[in-house]
Amino acid sequence: MKIRFTALAVAALLVMPAAWAQSKAEGAADAPPMKIGVVNMQVAIGSTAEGKQAAAELQSQFAPRQNELDTLRKQIEDVQNRLRTGETTLSDEEKARLARQGDQLSRTYQRKQQESQDDFNDAQQEIVNGIGRKMMDILDQYSKEKGYAVVLDSSSPQTPVMYASNAVDITQDVIHLYDQDHPLKTAAAAAPKPAAPKP
Q1: Cβ atoms of residues 58 and 127 within 8 Å
Q2: Distance from chain centroid for Cα 77
Q3: What is the pLDDT of residue 2?
Q4: What is the pTM of this model?
Q5: Cα separation of 136 and 134, whole Å?
Q6: Which residues of the chain have pLDDT under 70?
Q7: Candidates 2.60.40.60, 3.40.50.1470, 3.30.450.40, 3.30.910.20; correct CATH number of 34-183?
């Protein structure tokens, strides 16, 4: 009797996992497959019409500062050339004066370059954050409509994507939807229309 009961218990234990696995497989067949997408947010933000326009405006905004840095660099090079070519002909006083002038120009150049770089980075980050916030709304809506369970950012070091098929890359779709939802305001559209001439 004990042997028969033990054999039945062992048989029941062996059948239960198989039945559980089968019911799990049947349930998985009913559920839609999990879709995973990949988006390169850096490329997406920079490739939108708004991103391209903002980048061009940023370059033109910082162009005068870049020109000032170029002028300073040329002055430093000029002083260095004068010191090099006048090694044997210049007086010690003139050499010392040129060396001081070169040091002062170099310090000014480094300070202005650092300030310009910091200001540029801050302005660029502000643009990226502004477009990025709007793009997250687009991405959220797109992912829900297309049934994506997970979307990874391939440009982020926090989510390294070792391989992604082009079939799961939704970057171009997101750029297209962003440009549709956030069209650029042209100068002609933004300008007020002239009043109609009075008869």
Answers
A1: yes
A2: 36
A3: 44
A4: 0.67
A5: 5
A6: 1-32, 186-199
A7: 3.30.910.20
